[in-house]
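Curious: can you check?
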Amino acid sequence: MELSRIFAVISIPILMLSDYYLTIIGKKLRDKEYFKYFTSEEYELNPVWQKDINKLKMFNYKHILAVCLITLYFYLASNLMRVTLFDFFYGAIFILYTFIITRHLQNIFTYKLSFKHPEFLSGKLVINQIYTLKLSQYQTIFFAVFLLLINIWVQSWFLFGGFAGLLVLYLIQFTWIRRFRQKMAQQSKT
């Protein structure tokens, strides 16, 4: 197996675990002080992980299983797929998780800035979950288009996979919005 494919297989669990644990760190920091100024209904956007993140669950069997299965898939794919196809799928997951991780790091540094300089903030902003999901969609689709434009010149299956991965996230977020609306409609009936 090529060195680049070994790196690819090893990076998958690192990225996925980093995403999960940075989410927990971000939620802890937000709830510590920043929550006085900024409130949202859920910290985690993905409904699959919301309960576990809200509980600050450090060992999540479902997540570990997903990490193992996706890593196994990429290990097998690294030995069986043509280079272009592997680059496409690896680009999709690598760029998607790198994008998500950078957003976690932005949040963490924003929270730390608010701890260091509370005088920078005043008042309280309450944000609806749908608004949060829409903001996330905008960030996702604009970065996806940016990758697509770069790919016109570079012509890389890896970057095109990254575009596709972000596009899939953008579309999935429509289902998250629909689920949240259904949840709110059920709660208003009771």
In short: The mean pLDDT is 93. Strands lie at 38-40, 125-127. Helices lie at 3-32, 50-54, 61-80, 83-116, 129-154, 157-189.
